[in-house]
Amino acid sequence: MTAVVQAEALTKYYGRRRGLEELTLDIQPGEIFGYLGPNGAGKTTTLRLLLDVIRPTRGSVRVLGGAPREPATRARIGYLPGDLVLEGRDRAIDYLRFLGRMRGGVPASRIEALAERFDADLTVPMRKLSKGNKQKVGLIQAFMHEPEFVILDEPTMGLDPLVQQEFLALVREVRASGRTVLMSSHVLAEVQSVSDRVGIVRAGRLVAVENVAALREKAVRRVELHFASPVPPAAFENLPGVRDLRVEGASVRCTIDGRPDALVKAAARFTVVHLVSAEPDLEEIFLTYYSEGEHDDRQKPA
User: Fold this and answer.
1) Per CATH, is 5-215 categorized as 3.40.50.300?
2) Is residue 26 within a helix (H) or strand (E), and if so which, with residue range?
3) Delimiting residues of CATH 3.40.50.300 domain(s) in the chain
4) What is the SS3 assignment for 206?
5) How do residues 78-102 score in pLDDT, each as one tens digit?
6) Alpha-helix runs per DSSP H in 27-160
């Protein structure tokens, strides 16, 4: 099955400033790919290159098996820009109907159904819409023609929590139908909840592509154990993957990198009466990649 995105050594410089360098990436049909990084990391540059909004300095990219500049390819894509601008006196519904006609005819019922899901008032002139309502209109136009590939740049910006949850439900439905979503965000929780894989971009470079389940397995966990009686500190020292160890009487607190197997085996020698393990979070993993990258940069000669 042909990859939805095939990028090879994709690079973009703005004068001397690096926007993106040597991006090689495949995104497969039917997956939700989360693209993580803070503002300025290269996320928006990547999306604009995929859409042929800007041209690469070097490298190549194919989307849905074709060149992104081809009209036939663009017609199969839905896009929500991060810098969405909606102005003018036209009502939001008139704007969406116009786009629907341009895209070959989107049923009015489809637009109305999405507006209801997002609790969007489409009777208001676009220039009078709040930031959150503009974002809702942007989401409707991205999904309304049921594209094969949806590209979303910071999609939940300005949305209230209930609408965010409705959006994430829609993304899951798109995946269930076999279609593909690329979601760029710095909001790690939303990416963690729906993505199959994530790419982490730092300073214009892709530093990792990971399966979300594998990331959780690698994640840092904070563990607290309580025993029936005091335990010797030596029983928990120098265990693989265990750090920040604190043994105080009948309690043990530590941080685990990766699997907890060694800690569990050590604890099994005593009577455990209570255990607390904090669920690993992508944010900690994300920050780990960034701190490692900054350390590597400092190691490089000037």
Assistant:
1) yes
2) strand 17-27
3) 5-215
4) strand
5) 999 988 888 888 899 999 999 999 8
6) 43-50, 71-74, 92-102, 108-117, 131-143
